[in-house]
Amino acid sequence: MIKDVIEAIAAAARRLFANWGALLISLALYAALVAAIYLFFFTVREATKLQVVLNLVITLAAITFFFALQAMGLSYVRIGVGAGYLLKRALKDCWKILIVTLPLVLLAWLIVYAFGKIDQTFFTQSLTAGSKARAWLAIGVSAVRIFLLYCLLPLMAIHLWIATVREGLAAAFKGFGRSIARAFAPRSLLIYVLVCAVFGAISYFLLFKKATFKDEWTELWVVGVKTTLALLMIFLGWLLTLGSMAEMTARRAMEEL
């Protein structure tokens, strides 16, 4: 199993850096997504009619960029297709994977709501030294919430996206349960954990490892470079995760034939 996982990750990495056109298009989509998020959340604006319209346009653009990027990440492992074709397919498939993601968005909201109620009911009071059992229970509940929201749901989404891109929207909904089951497969979990752990650790180090300089401008430049590199690591890690999952799914499908 570990050999299969390493081979899938290596194959996805080779194809990612071999297809420079697809990589640059994906990077452009990622940059546009980051810019749209920045414009939406980090610019001070008055609530005028024009601003409401601009917010709506930015939101729609961000959604398009996000799901087109996912489609690109799932398709670049294909052999013998150019970057232009991949972009056309990504723009065509992005709305399909948006639709198939909606049930997971609802599930994510239910998880957040349910765990919020649990926190309000059982853990609103401060955890004193005499309540070790309740403290460990709170840690366990928090760990389950993190696992569901940041591991299981993304894996479920990836496999639903793969089914949508490969088989179409109707087939993806029809095989919804099969895609969810694949999210629990050991190979999927191992790919997700390995790639996210490596690139996540690099990004965390770049973002939170402090370095002080006497010159404020030097420190500002260093922070900017580190932030840019961290965002780039997140981009490469996620694209490699998507490609590895698609590669593994294709290999398993070939074995079943």
Question: Would you give an account of this structure?
Answer:
This protein is mainly alpha-helical and 257 residues long. The chain has one domain (2-256). Helix content is 86%, strand content 0%. It contains nine helices and no strands. It has helices spanning 2-18, 20-41, 49-75, 83-122, 132-167, 169-174, 176-183, 186-208, 216-256. Helix 1 (2-18) packs across helix 9 (216-256), helix 3 crosses helix 4 and helix 8 (186-208) runs antiparallel to helix 9 (216-256). The longest helix is centred in the last third of the chain and has 41 residues, at 216-256. It is globular. The two termini are 19 Å apart.
Summarize the structure.
This protein is an all-alpha fold and about 260 residues long. It contains 9 helices and no strands.
Key traits:
257 residues; mainly alpha; 9 helices; globular
The radius of gyration over CA amounts to 21 Å
Show unreliable segments. Answer: none
Overall pLDDT level? 84
Number of domains: 1
Form type: globular
Write the layout of secondary structure elements.
Blueprint: H1 2-18, H2 20-41, H3 49-75, H4 83-122, H5 132-167, H6 169-174, H7 176-183, H8 186-208, H9 216-256
